[in-house]
Design the sequence.
């Protein structure tokens, strides 16, 4: 099943909001998942109050004299030599590039990677870790009969009973959500062979969301934002049973998420695995059509479950309205920042987030990826917008402090040559770092 790559919707929004560009023609827009775009107008976007550049900044053309940011071997250029300065060629570190088609084996999976894919060397471990997490989260188990087949290529993403196909960008840390989502489909299909799209997608979305909060790999996908702005809500509520049975396309994701969310609220967060196990028991060789599945859902919940859903939804629809994405990163202190960079889309996209006491945004792998793609990288450029008080410390590739900037309910320009990391400390309130790929890179 195709997962809607609604990240693109956000990319498009941000393109519109921040640069006034036209909407790129993106091949991921298979379904009508841009409903967020349609209704999410500019004034609904994240926009903190904008004041002039923050106070106390030490990030000037020539490095600061302040004693605590002493070691300034970083070659910060003068303005007239800007174009000569680039981040030195970065070692790929924990990443590598497939030279040919590569195949490797983990305990439970066979992984195929197309040539010329930039991927984490420990991708096999990431897959195994994700499989474990899905099993813990769902109580379902992946079949041990055959190894799962994980293909990384320019196709998909989708998940089947035998494994998944994901795209090159999906092996990078900021798209980890795709792995959660597609493997959720696989564990479901291995438990029961059902075809009702709202249920299969609702489960994958809900499960990925729960995993996102627990995984050691933080996900930047804000499910609530991406599932906001449901055009056909009233159609769903007028006859939920028929609607949820028949709905196709992106609406199946929207409605399915809402229904599964309700089922878990009302009947416990193991209700979907219970339904799947029952379907697998009753129809071990397939044949569980939509009406059979509806009967199973009712038998595991209530005869009136669809009416209950409609009533619940009337009182709880606010849960599903989020006008701009905000990620809670309070469970992590380190985040790798990659551009979304393929044939169609070239952008950095980072949602606003909250954090605990400090968090490091590490651009190193992403910069190495851009360098691998033939671009020169200047440093960290873009904007930072905050609702609260934060100190941004910029580091170069050898981990030396270049300078610091403070923002306090303000927006500042970032133009830090040579920087590859930002350490943010502060009150943990919402901050939105928006790297600008056009300023960061030179062809
Ligand atoms: Zn899906």
Sequence:
């Amino acid at each position: 099943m195709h997962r809607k790559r609604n990240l693109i919707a956000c990319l498009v929004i941000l393109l519109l909001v921040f640069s006034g560009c036209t909407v790129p023609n993106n091949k991921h827009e298979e379904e009508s998942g841009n409903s967020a775009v349609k209704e999410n107008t500019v004034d609904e976007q994240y926009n903190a109050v904008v004041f002039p550049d923050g106070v106390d900044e030490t990030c000037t053309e020539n490095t600061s004299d302040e004693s605590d940011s002493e070691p300034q071997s970083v070659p910060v250029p003068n303005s007239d030599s800007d174009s000569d300065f680039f981040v030195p060629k970065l070692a790929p570190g924990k990443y590598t590039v497939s030279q040919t088609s590569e195949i490797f084996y983990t305990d439970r999976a066979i992984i195929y990677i197309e040539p010329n894919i930039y991927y984490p060397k420990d991708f096999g471990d990431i897959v195994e870790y994700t499989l474990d997490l899905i099993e813990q989260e769902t109580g379902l188990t992946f079949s041990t009969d055959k190894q799962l087949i994980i293909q990384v290529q320019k196709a998909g993403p989708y998940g089947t009973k035998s494994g998944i196909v994901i795209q090159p960008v999906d092996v990078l840390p900021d798209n980890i959500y795709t792995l959660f989502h597609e493997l959720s489909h696989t564990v479901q299909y291995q438990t029961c062979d059902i075809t009702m799209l709202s249920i299969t997608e609702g489960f994958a979305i809900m499960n990925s969301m729960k995993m996102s909060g627990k995984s050691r790999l933080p996900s930047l996908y804000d499910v609530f934002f991406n599932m906001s702005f449901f055009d056909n809500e009233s159609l769903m509520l007028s006859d939920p049973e028929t609607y949820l049975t028949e709905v196709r396309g992106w609406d199946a994701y929207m409605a399915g998420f809402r229904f599964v969310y309700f089922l878990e609220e009302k009947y416990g967060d193991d209700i979907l695995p219970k339904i799947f196990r029952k379907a697998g028991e009753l129809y071990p060789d397939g044949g569980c059509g939509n009406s059979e599945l509806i009967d199973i859902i009712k038998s595991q919940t209530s005869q009136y479950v669809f009416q209950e859903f409609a009533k619940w939804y009337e009182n709880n629809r606010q849960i599903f309205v989020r006008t701009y994405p905000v990620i809670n990163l309070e469970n992590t202190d380190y985040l790798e920042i990659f551009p979304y960079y393929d044939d169609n889309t070239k952008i950095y996209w980072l949602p606003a987030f909250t954090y605990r006491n400090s968090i490091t945004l590490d651009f190193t792998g992403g910069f190495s990826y851009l360098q691998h793609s033939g671009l020169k990288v200047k440093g960290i450029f873009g904007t930072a917008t905050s609702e609260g008080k934060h100190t941004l410390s910029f580091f170069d590739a050898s981990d030396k402090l270049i300078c610091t900037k403070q923002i306090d309910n303000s927006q500042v320009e970032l133009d830090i040559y040579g920087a590859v990391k930002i350490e943010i400390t502060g009150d943990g309130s919402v901050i939105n770092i928006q790297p600008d790929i056009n300023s960061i890179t030179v062809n």
Summary: The chain has 14 helices and 21 strands. The CA atoms of residues 303 and 342 lie 48 Å apart. The chain has three domains: 7-42, 67-87+326-442, 94-219+229-321. Residues 1-56, 61-75, 78-83 have pLDDT under 50 and may be disordered.
